[in-house]
Design goal:
Blueprint lengths: L20 H21 L6 H22 L3 E5 L3 E6 L2 E6 L4 E3 L2 E5 L9 E7 L2 E7 L6 E3 L1
Antiparallel strand pairs: 1-2, 1-5, 2-3, 4-6, 6-7, 7-8
Length: about 140
């Protein structure tokens, strides 16, 4: 014959074996902190070619602005940024930390040309790139 077990009514959580709200929040805060630290460590960095391509696009935009609006666009290169100004407008391209241009200024005329050849030095980390502008035109290349 089967033995009958006594049935006992157990009320949940009266035996105090669960986590309290404070303990649960503490564990959640630790997990969030670990997630934030791991995201900071694994943030992708831009490669040099991506940075240079962004600058090339910005400079071509300045040239196209001069041609489409038939106005002079001044481009100023400094340690932290590149600034394009025309009429009453201004655009700023910020360089990343550790990157810099030698201070220089050039102007695109209404045809998109510049007055003379120029070589601008761009320092990207421990690399050195040269933006070479050709005489009488607004075309340039990077070496």
């Amino acid at each position: 014959m089967a033995r009958k077990l006594p049935l006992k009514m157990v009320r949940p959580m009266l035996n105090k074996n669960g986590f309290t709200m404070i303990e649960t929040l503490f564990v959640l805060i630790i997990i969030c902190m670990m997630f934030c630290i791991s995201m900071y460590i694994h943030i992708p960095q831009k490669s040099d070619t991506v940075k240079i391509n962004e600058m090339i696009q910005f400079l071509y935009q300045a040239k196209l602005t001069a041609m489409t609006q038939k106005t002079v666009v001044n481009v100023s290169f400094s340690q932290q940024n590149i600034i394009c100004t025309w009429n009453q407008s201004k655009e700023i391209f910020k360089l990343d930390k550790g990157d810099s241009f030698e201070s220089h200024q050039l102007s695109f005329n209404a045809n998109g040309n510049i007055q003379g050849a120029k070589t601008l030095i761009y320092h990207c980390g421990n690399q050195r790139y040269e933006f070479v502008y050709q005489i009488g035109s607004g075309t340039f290349y990077v070496r």
